[in-house]
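Notebook, p. 212. Picked up where the previous page left off. The plan for this session was modest: take the two constructs that came back from the sequencing core last week, fold each one, and keep the raw output in the notebook itself so nobody has to go hunting through shared drives later. Recording the first one now, exactly as returned: residue sequence, then the structure token string.
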Amino acid sequence: MPQTPRSTKARKSRVTAYAEGVIRRFSPLAVVTAAVLALGLSACAPVEEKPATQPTPTGSASATPTPTPTPTATPSPSPTADLACLVGAWHMGQDQVTAFYNDVNSLMAGSGAKFTPVGTADLILRKDGTYTWTPAEQVTANVSGTTILINFKGSITGTYTVTGNGIGSQTQDTSGLEIVATIDGKGTDAGAISQQISVAPISDAKYGCKPDTLTLINKLSDSTATSVLHRE
């Protein structure tokens, strides 16, 4: 679970509650922290159903009173396609982070909320199916005239799988990520906003991979937001 932001003893503000309502309005999934790149204003709609990889138990075909199934082992999450291209360290520059949020803000037009990121982001995809995501260090949320400043320090780790042209995060551990939110310099509880803003852009996304460029397309409501990363 995410670490509790410092000075979160303050009651959740009406502005924060409103912002969470905006998130729920645009989020097609009701799963906490299931969403996109640094914003999870939208949890991503599933790209396609992942095939089962666990072998089916087999029993004796003879008239044995109680056939004994062959023991099976639960497979560990791991990529299954385009491994050579996907594995590695990927960097999202300030321009690419801003472009992603521009997509999100376009979708949010008319909602009274706007998000502005500062900083870069990094994604490491490993051959064993694990990943590390370091989000942009700061996101400013302007909600109905009030500014919420959300700062991040640290990284999220987890596991992922690949199916066809889809990539999805299976598990995530946010214990290594510190989140501090303020309004006018005073600590506040950012609630679901802080959790969703920090998640990696590989939650059920479609991807395109070239030797030096990884493109992740996340479905947001009836639109999409694109993350472009370059190999380090």
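Okay, moving on. Second construct, recorded in the same format:
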Amino acid sequence: MPAVRLAWHPLAAQDFLAIIDDIAADNPAAATAFKQDVEARVATLTRHPDLVRPGRVASTRELVVRQTYIVVYTEQAGSILILRLLHGARQWP
């Protein structure tokens, strides 16, 4: 199986950093753990991109992280593009 490239859209990267900063304001250790959890879960997408639920927007998929956050991504020509990282309570799309 060929390697799948993984990339973060600038909005997704901004979401990720904002969430980490928000968590770190109260608990830096929890922010570090969250960052590691997201990175580990996202890394699994390169091996099994189709094992998560179809997204609410056409051509997307949604990976749930910690029952609270949703990684929204799309597959494009052998690569995975992370589109957003959203809190589950947030209205999406």
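Notes on construct two before I forget. The mean pLDDT is 92.
Flagging for discussion at group meeting.
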